Amino acid sequence: MVEKKAGATFLADVIRRFDQFSLSYNPSGKVDTKSWDTPMGRLDVMKSSGDTFEKAGLIYCDLTIETPPVLAEKLGQQGSKAQVYVLEINFYPHNPFIPRGYMELRVNITDTLVLAGGTDIFPYFSRHEEDSTFFADGMKELCASHGQDYNRLQKTRADFFVSKYRKDKVGSHAGIYSFQLEEKDFTFFKGIAETFFRLYGAIVEKGKARPFTPEDAESKLLIHGLWTQWILLEDEGTKYGLEKGIPPDALLGGILPPRATF
Fold first, then answer.
1. 188-243 pLDDT per residue, tens
2. Ramachandran quadrant class, 173 (left: phi over 0; alpha: psi -120 to 50; beta: rest)
3. For position 48, which CATH number holds?
């Protein structure tokens, strides 16, 4: 049985890994942290800018909330309260030939421990499809080693991360997502973070030396605009947090790109 505090301890380790990863690629920069006390609990935002990443952003929430509707329905716990730890990471590279990296991890504590989250990459150009293939292969290997169904988790990712207005996918859909992992899946849950940093680090190393033009950079900003639209108009988690009183500067500052073109 996994102790409830183990989830928070693990996410603290991921935060340290983010700090190390960011500084390794942005050695000329530093990681700035700002905290807020919100109506639901504490929220921390970490941001770094430097040589490789125009913005490396992390948002971490320690909240007491009503059990999220999607999870409550699955657990039959409508109206219950949950202690929720939420961590989301976004890496926005300078070089448009490095995909944007994304990971979200959630620990929900009610009368049981429920884990949720996943990861993906967001290539800016389809001609570098090998990055998506490499990322997908790594996720398939992770799933196979823990008895998880990659195709099912990939479909969850694909079905949720799609724009109902543009009728198009959000991200590469090479990654995985689950709204409900059990305590017995905790080792797999931890593996998501470890695999993300390993795979994305290899992709960054491969892509950071690729030359790009001002036109390539402008194309990247247009894609940032599409992601921003999805976050502001369609992402239920973002809308829920804003409606519950999380300051926009805190919530959006941690996840949106530093620049976008519409």
1. 999 999 999 999 999 999 999 899 999 999 999 999 999 999 999 999 889 888 99
2. left
3. 3.40.1500.10
